[in-house]
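ingest -> validate -> predict -> emit
validate: passed (alphabet ok, no gaps, 171 aa)
predict: started
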Amino acid sequence: MNVSDILENEYAGHFGTYIKQAGEGKLLEELEISLHEFIRFVQNIPMDKFDYRYAEGKWTIKEIIQHVIDTERIFAYRALRFSRNDKTPLPSFEEQDYADNSDANARSIQDLLTEFSAVRHSNLLFYKSLSDEQLKRIGTASNNQISVCALGFVIIGHQKHHQKVFEERYL
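emit:
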């Protein structure tokens, strides 16, 4: 499925911002391509930038990478629940609490990238296993309707959003 296959009733709210950033390719291809692009991008960041904050109270690059990993896990969990036709509304999460408790700055960049790769590969296998019917299923997360397919593109768009933040504010 492509972004253009997602109907307007398959997502709401802020999710649309990320979906628009995900690219026009097929979901599985974009998940794979964005994995390699992100790793290559991060590997080219100067070592002295990983613990840099561009302003007081802002996250470091390591904290943002951990945030991308944590958020992908949460979105994938939502996609799993909805793909299995679980109609239970899922709550939002407080990203600052996750960042404050991640200890990302104590980790090496290689550990973070290895974890990112493992999470993405797991999600690629998950999305490959889904039928078109499962991809179109819709659930409620953070008081917004969203389909399993849309969540896949949100994962990609969220990652690309933060990569752009790195370029604009950290490098």
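The radius of gyration is 16 Å.
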